[in-house]
Design goal:
This protein is α+β, with helices and mostly antiparallel strands. It has two domains: 217 residues, Glutaredoxin (3-Layer(aba) Sandwich); 77 residues, Ubiquitin-like (UB roll). 48% of the residues lie in helices and 17% in strands. The protein is built from twelve helices and ten strands. A five-stranded mixed sheet has the order 1-5-4-2-3. It has a five-stranded mixed sheet with strand order 7-6-10-8-9. Helix 10 packs antiparallel against helix 11. The longest helix has 46 residues. Pfam families: FAF1, UBX. It comes from Penstemon smallii. This is UBX domain-containing protein. Keywords: Ubl conjugation pathway.
Length: 374
């Protein structure tokens, strides 16, 4: 406890973070979805939101089964409310618990961009339409942050608003995990800001805090580049050795055929010793293996609930093959969707179905977001 306090005080003195807060225990250990059912002034808001949502199902990207209770899963409540009013063009908000978003950010060496959404605040509509949903903000946030949003009047959003002492809306913060159960608040913005102001604040935060929290990112990136270069060199050496072996095999086969031919019986077909079946099979397998290894393209697919799945394709496969793979998974809640790249943001829809993965710039590896549509 004393070590954490000293570390926090030292960080604040050095200006590394604006402040440190301790995450509520119920957020760390799993949030109870019934914790605020007794708050009378929030029940009416929840019921109105749910009723409006299910009366306008085309504006949301999945429908509740017919015989199931009409309840929005807590992790999806923010997206349901937001997209009902402002559409699907927005930063890629992960529909997951806050601690899961922190873990994703830690794995990707990024900060978390937190947005607490207050639907009834007078500044909210203009901020969402004129700032948060603009193309420059969408692309900048998708490229540099793991975005997490929540309703400020329920669930984890209410808990975070209380913990952070939010006084007005819209509220945004740049946060990072710290020691123990602490959360480092690197930057926070309360009240409306323009797109240019928001980009300037976020860019400045990345530059100032990157040395403190992202010092390992450069090393990780350099290691990734070295590993990739080593793999490419190994693949090239393997293919070169395979080519030499195949050339030796062809030369050996040709010599054997010449020795076994009988000139005095020119009218008869020459006797040729065929290579054994096992030799041909081994050679073919080696050639096939080398081709696949050289052509392999790995695609990391990120889903709105925070799940990530990696799948191997050939670089000659097409965009439509990625869609076929996702459809074959049979994931719940995934109906109409499209694939988008990170930065610069690009949509890969019906017009790009025939494009090969190599032509799309996905070889040897890439990552795509799965964005749900109405």
């Amino acid at each position: 406890m004393m070590d954490n306090a000293r570390a926090e005080a030292e960080a604040l003195r050095n200006g590394i973070v604006r402040r440190m807060v301790r995450l509520p225990r119920n957020i760390l250990g799993g949030f109870s979805r019934v914790m605020n059912q007794g708050i009378d002034n929030l029940i009416g808001i929840r019921e109105r939101t749910n009723q409006n949502h299910y009366n306008q199902t085309p504006n949301f990207h999945f429908q509740q089964p017919i015989n199931q209770p009409q309840i929005i899963q807590e992790e999806w409540a923010f997206l349901a409310n937001f997209e009902q009013h402002y559409g699907t063009t927005h930063p890629f908000f992960y529909a997951c618990r806050f601690v899961d978003a922190l873990k994703i950010a830690e794995d990707e060496h990024k900060f978390v961009f937190m947005y607490l959404h207050s639907p009834e605040h007078p500044f909210t509509p203009s901020f969402c339409r004129e700032t948060l949903c603009t193309e420059i903000i969408v692309q900048f946030l998708d490229a540099n942050f793991v975005c997490w949003g929540a309703l400020a009047n329920r669930g984890e959003g209410l808990q975070m608003a209380t913990t952070l002492g939010v006084s007005t809306f819209p509220f945004c913060a740049v946060v990072a995990p710290s020691s123990g159960d602490n959360l480092a608040i690197l930057q926070q913005m309360e009240g409306p800001v323009s797109p240019a102001e928001l980009v300037e604040i976020l860019q400045s935060t990345i530059e100032q805090q990157g040395l403190a929290f992202g010092s390992g990112k450069a090393k990780q990136e350099e290691k990734r580049r070295v590993d990739l270069r080593l793999k490419e060199e190994q693949d090239a050496a393997y293919l070169a050795a395979l080519t030499i072996d195949q050339e030796k095999e062809r030369h050996k086969k040709s010599s054997s055929e010449n020795k076994l031919q009988k000139p005095e019986k020119s009218k008869q077909n020459p006797v040729i010793k065929q290579p054994s079946k096992s030799t041909v099979t081994t050679s073919q397998k080696a050639a096939s293996s080398g081709c696949k290894k050289a052509e392999e393209t790995k695609i990391l697919i990120r889903f709105p609930n925070g799940e990530r799945r990696e799948q191997s394709f050939l670089c000659t496969d097409k965009i439509k093959d990625i869609y076929k793979h996702i459809d074959s998974l049979g994931l719940l809640g995934v109906g109409n969707y499209r694939l988008i790249s990170n930065f610069p943001r690009k949509v890969y829809g019906s017009d790009q179905m025939g494009m090969t993965l190599k032509d799309a710039g996905f070889h040897p590896k890439s990552s795509l977001f799965l964005e749900l549509l109405d």
